[in-house]
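Researcher: I'd like a candidate sequence for this fold, 188 residues long. If you have to choose between options at a position, lean toward the conservative one.
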């Protein structure tokens, strides 16, 4: 896969008369109002090395898609560190605040990994956040006009060290006793 506006997607399969038929859709994959523009997170500064906090770069790509009226935010293969360390950073992961955005990765090759030390959400889909756009600061999701048409495809959410990513961890129970990492939060 490379970033671009045309993607091949199998949309149906059918076995007939001892053979199989696959229908292929080669039309542009569109994100809505933006006409399918693609915004690679690497072009906005993401490193995809598994240790760098890529959240500001990813959110800049999401903002660009929102400014275009929608589009594809593309994650080339790699491991993307997401979220801020420290207390009160629950919504400091990826923030989608508009309609018609597709977060598109390469299946089994584009990984989102939390960096939180006090718990947090890797992806929050919410119409508005307080304190934006200071990514990494404490932000609360606040209600506004509903958003729609947000899709996530081909991204692997993986917490490689859950005990390190929660507010407090109990070795006795093997569980977080305080806030832990969450994959996706959706409001409105």
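Model: Candidate sequence:
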């Amino acid at each position: 896969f490379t970033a671009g506006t045309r993607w091949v997607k199998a949309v149906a399969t059918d076995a007939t008369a001892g053979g199989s038929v696959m229908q292929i859709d080669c039309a542009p994959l569109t994100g809505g109002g933006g006409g399918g523009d693609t915004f690679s997170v690497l072009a906005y500064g993401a490193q995809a090395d598994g240790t760098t906090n890529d959240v500001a770069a990813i959110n800049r790509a999401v903002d660009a898609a929102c400014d275009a009226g929608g589009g594809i935010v593309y994650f080339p293969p790699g491991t993307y560190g997401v979220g801020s360390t420290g207390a009160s950073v629950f919504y400091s992961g990826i923030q989608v605040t508009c309609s018609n955005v597709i977060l598109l990765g390469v299946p089994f090759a584009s990984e989102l990994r939390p960096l939180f030390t006090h718990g947090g959400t890797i992806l929050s889909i919410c119409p508005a956040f307080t304190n934006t756009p200071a990514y990494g600061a404490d932000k609360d999701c606040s209600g506004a006009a509903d958003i729609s048409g947000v899709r996530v495809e081909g991204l692997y959410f993986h917490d490689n060290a859950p005990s390190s990513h929660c507010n407090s961890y109990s070795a006795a129970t093997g569980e977080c006793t305080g806030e832990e990492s969450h994959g996706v939060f959706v409001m409105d």
